Structure formats: C-alpha cells, structure tokens
Amino acid sequence: MKDQVTLSDKTKLSMPIANLIGLIMIVASVVFMYSQITNRLTSLETSRHLFENDLLKKSTQLPTDQEQYMLLEHLAGQVEDIQKELEENRHTAVNLNRAMKDIEKMQGTIEVLKDKVRQNGGT
What letter does residue 60 receive in the DSSP assignment? Predict the structure, then answer.
C-alpha cells in the first residue's frame, strides 16, 4: 500500500533556504509584473478616454467660435455691398465721361450758334 500524505497546519516541511528564497523571488517578480501590466493598461485606457473627450470638445463650437463666425458673415456682407458700389461707380464713371464729351460737343455747338447770331447783327 502507498503512503498517504495528509496536510494540516501541523505538517512540517523542510526545504533548503536557497529554494525558499528562489520561490519568494519568483512570486515577488510575478506580482510586480502583474502590477506593471495593470498600471500600463490603466494608463492606456485613461489616455484613450482623454483623447476621445478632447475630440468631442473640439467638435463642438465654443461661443467665441460662433461669434467669430457671425463676424465673418457680417464682414462678407459688407464686402459684397462694397463690390456692388464699386460696380455702380464704374458705370457712373463711364456715364460721366460720356456726359462730359456730350457737354463739350454742346459747348462747341453753342459757340458756333453764338457766332452766327453775332454775324446776323444780334447782340
């Protein structure tokens, strides 16, 4: 029959001290590696969460962004008005040049008519 081993709190264990220190070091290194892996995962999850929050914040418009957008729209409207006015002024300048030529032609005609009236004995 085989020897049966029973374990209890009174069971004695004999082991060389080098083996005991080796076992303690192995257990300590496994616990240290586990804690390092857990810390790294926590750090990566936190940075991912912060990154997502930053993206959400960037996607929403802040009041200053809305104000700047409104100012840009206002300025764009003013630029359009100025462009229309410039177009009108260009046409006005063309019309003024044409009117000046017509006035000069009329002045010439008036001078000719004055000369004819003087020749006929008028005042």
Answer: S
Is the entire prediction scored with pTM above 0.85?
no
Structural Rg of the chain based on CA atoms:
51
34 closest CA partner among 24, 26, 23: 26
Burial class (CB in 10 A: 0-12, 13-18, 19+), 119: exposed
Q: How many residues appear in the chain? A: 123
Farthest-apart Cα atoms in the chain, separation:
168
Element (H, E) at 96: helix 63-119
Task: Spell out a b/e string for 82-111, using b for 16 or more CB atoms within 10 Å of the CB, else e.
Answer: eeeeeeeeeeeeeeeeeeeeeeeeeeeeee
pLDDT tens for residues 93-122? Answer: 788 888 899 999 999 999 999 888 888 875
Contacts of 77 (CB under 8 A, 6+ apart): none
Token pair of 110 as six digits: 């008036």
CA 94 to chain centre: 45
